């Protein structure tokens, strides 16, 4: 009787498994087709001098890169189950997540280490900008960073922002400025010290966050500030594994057909010099 039940279960499971596999494949196929379209549209808008074929080729290379990145994430997750479990638990423990700082689907941030105790001493604040080759990852992947900093009494903001193909570097800078502005306007309500805000980024997040401060400092030094300038509100900057010599970095990226996304040739030393001049 048990044998007959197992045989029946296997027979009913197999067609359903195939249906599930086909559904997953169709979903990923559609999702990547949408990403190719977004990438192609963005490249054509930002770089109209490039041919249609070049824009399409660059978009397809991007999707291939994302696929390889996803495969790498899966392999890493299988090899490091404890870290994956910790990240999941860190995210599920959130009580203050998905604050919206803008209209786009990626305009959301999470808070770690918050307090509503008005008598508590205001906590130092870290605004953390995730990396991911300007095109991948999510605030979810860095939940453990926020939780670990919270253990040391640091109120941490871990934010999403538009990455390629949702936007280019200019859009990323606009989003990062909005993240800092949201923090300045709201963090005191959650126990943060607006006079002690550190901006930090990892990898490509280190690049765009340093570029945000550099451009802001330049405008301030030239006496042409915008209504909100991030450099006026950041006490400390910490860049982690960021590409700061963009000439060398984009020479490398050009070999992977990512050449159109040209950044800045300004070195980190110039950022230090500008901030020293502002003191």
UniProtKB/TrEMBL annotation:
All copies of domain BD-FAE-like, residue ranges: 121-251
Family matches, as Gene3D superfamilies: alpha/beta hydrolase
Keyword DNA-binding found: no
Domain of life from the UniProt record: Eukaryota
Hydrolase recorded as keyword: yes
Cited InterPro entries: AB_hydrolase_fold, BD-FAE-like_dom, GDXG_lipolytic_enzyme
Pfam family membership, one: BD-FAE
GO molecular function: hydrolase activity
Keywords of this entry: Hydrolase
Official protein name in the record: BD-FAE-like domain-containing protein
Organism for this UniProt entry: Saprolegnia parasitica (strain CBS 223.65)
